[in-house]
Amino acid sequence: MKEKLLAIEPKYKQIKDILAQNILEGRYAEGEKIPSENELAEQFKVSRHTIIKALNELINEELICRRQGMGSFVVPAKARRKNRIGVLVYHSDNPYYSKIIRGIEDYAKRHGFYIVLCNSEGDILKEESYIKGLLSDVDGFLISPSYMQGELSPGVRLLMQEEMPFVIVSRLPSHKVAGSIDYVIPDDYEGGYKVTKHLIDSGYREILFMTVAGLHRQPEIQDRFLGYKKALSDEGIPFDERFILEAADTDPLHGYEKDGYQMAGRIASITERPLAVFSVGDSMAIGLMRGLREKGIKVPQDIAICGFDDIDLAGQWGIELTTVRHPSAEMGEKAAEILLNSIEKGKSGGQQIILPVELKVRKTSLIMQAAQAPVA
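The structure assignment produced for this chain is given below.
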């Protein structure tokens, strides 16, 4: 069959487009050998050099592959690069995850990949459904997995069964399975230690650990708690079970801000002073600040408050929350880098990275002797 080529576009590109269309429309079956370079040169009435340029373009697009001494063959659709990655997080509106997504998207875009973003909302069935739906449309996954009592969720197990490249970002499903997967997480243990040590150094010995009902079983919260306990131990302060306070679990989408607000009455009734609160999340800490101020309790003069994550709102005037800065955007970038390398190699690189965290001291935890006026 002779093909008529136009003069307004390079011939090798026109040939590439024609062959690509034939492949995508099934005129050449998956795994089928396409005509030789000489046969194609005769068909299109061009030089063999032009045909080689066209075939190289198809190889770059992963539509065909060369086999030494055998010729060029159509790559099965399942093995073709899509230049898309699936990203599954709790919810993209969450101020913490939005930073991670920003880092992922920036890195992926610079390297010619697009992201397909899905919100699991912590639902293991929803997570699995998204993964099943995207398996044939993406080259790999970045996932902040849904918690399932220390086990791998069905969606993560499916990725392993399908040998699909994936990297866990931000949080592990459990410590006991950490050795078998690639991940990029922050050093939650060190963060818990640093914030507690800061409060102790600021003069506080009665330090509440404020979490959310059920959340303490999750590995990242366990690590923050262990860091908290270690700092107390190192300073000779006995650990007291009464100082573990669990908020309700009604506002996960907004980082439990409403739950923190509702804890204000309970915390205000505690008579031990001086008192400090280490909240496992910034939004919950900010909710607590609002609730305490409405009750006339000054922060930090009456109660010091520290959070975790350093969301954008934490540093704003009028809040200025002492917190632990997760390298959220950097975490997203590093996870994307590992994933794209795995996609390129066709297998996992076996990388497990714990990124350092930073204590950001602001106005909600001033040293007691220096506290002069309430935060506006």
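Interim note for the steering committee: Residues 188-322+361-370 form a domain with the Rossmann fold fold (CATH 3.40.50.2300). The CA atoms of residues 196 and 228 lie 6 Å apart.
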